[in-house]
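Friendly challenge for the regulars: who can give me the structure tokens for this chain first? No prize, just bragging rights.
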Amino acid sequence: MRAVLRVDWLPGSDRLRGRCHCGAEAEVEDPVEMWEWLLAHPDHPSGGVAPAPEPGELPQPPAHVVTDPAQIP
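First reply, four minutes later:
Bragging rights claimed.
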């Protein structure tokens, strides 16, 4: 038996719903992100694709990275 990966477009939106052959499902807007998630089986999260952080929630850069060009000697 061959494994089936399914991606459906959700009408009225820009979202895609993917279902892995293991039964895990995810919804995202980016088709590349969807296929990366599906093809990562069995290592994909069972709850779906992790949501992208909001712009204000981006992780802080490592301490050794200079983020202010004025600080460059």
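Residues 1-48 form one domain. The radius of gyration is 18 Å. Your move, everyone else.
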